[in-house]
Amino acid sequence: MIFTNFSRLQQGETIILYNEFPIENVGKIKYYNDDADASGFSKREFRWSFNNEHWSGWQPLTQKNISFIETYENYYFFLQIRYVLSGENTANVTSFTLNYINGNASPSTPRILTNDIQTQDASAIIIHDIIQSYEITKIYDASLLHGYSGSYYLNRSNHIGMQPISSVSGLQGILNNTIKLGNVPTSTSYVGTTGSISFDSSYLYICVSTNTWGRVSLDFTF
Predict the structure, then answer these.
(1) How many CB atoms within 10 Å of residue 175?
(2) Residue 74 in contact with residue 103, Cβ under 8 Å?
(3) What backbone torsions phi and psi does residue 44 show, to the nearest 5 degrees?
(4) How many C-beta neighbours within 10 Å does residue 44 have?
(5) Which end of the chain has the least Cβ crowding within 10 Å, N or C?
């Protein structure tokens, strides 16, 4: 299949060729032809859209790049080709032909086209110049961490383990000034080195010397 119905817009040293009406059922793009001068352009690039609103980023215009476009069975296809002259009247381009293979898409609800592209500055024809997202990556259990909700980690009874006192800023000074250590029952299985702390849902255990611990009742939160 061949599509040639591209309109032309020039402002200053920038020329835009674009299809105002969508190309339908583009399956695979084979190649393009244009009548651009062999030299005289400082830049040639293109971008595409499936709805004339959300666009890919601009890419260098090459046969390889344009043939890599994946339409993902979108029925409508829009293309903009931007040529930037290297100087005043150094080159010209008036036509563009797209050669493609029909796809297997079915028509979607026709879109009402706007005239934005005819009124915007050609150097900033953005519409919404964002990279078109073709494949949506689904994020599962985004609200969970290792399968647990936030309430699990906010429950102090689930805060267990051992870490140096120095890992809690200012804790050593608070303990030195406010806590009188008691003895941990001999049945307690905590082991550790001086300066370590451990805690469970009821007590904070502080190792004051090798394998000798003090215990403080917990009635505060970190």
Answers:
(1) 18
(2) no
(3) -135, 125
(4) 17
(5) C
Give me the sign of the Cα torsion angle 138, 143, 145, 148: negative
Does residue 7 carry a pLDDT above 90? yes
Against a cut of 0.90, is the pTM above it? Answer: no
CA 129, CA 49: separation in Å to the nearest integer? Answer: 10
Cβ-based neighbour number of residue 43 at 10 Å: 14
Separation of alpha carbons 108 and 127, rounded Å? 21
Which one-letter amino acid corresponds to residue 89? N
Cα gap 19→56, rounded to integer Å: 15
Binned at pLDDT 50, 70 and 90, residue 221 comes out as very low
Neighbours of 200 (CB within 10 A): 14
Answer left, alpha or beta for residue 25, where phi above 0 means left and psi between -120 and 50 means alpha. Answer: left
**Residue 84 banded pLDDT, cuts 50, 70, 90:** very high
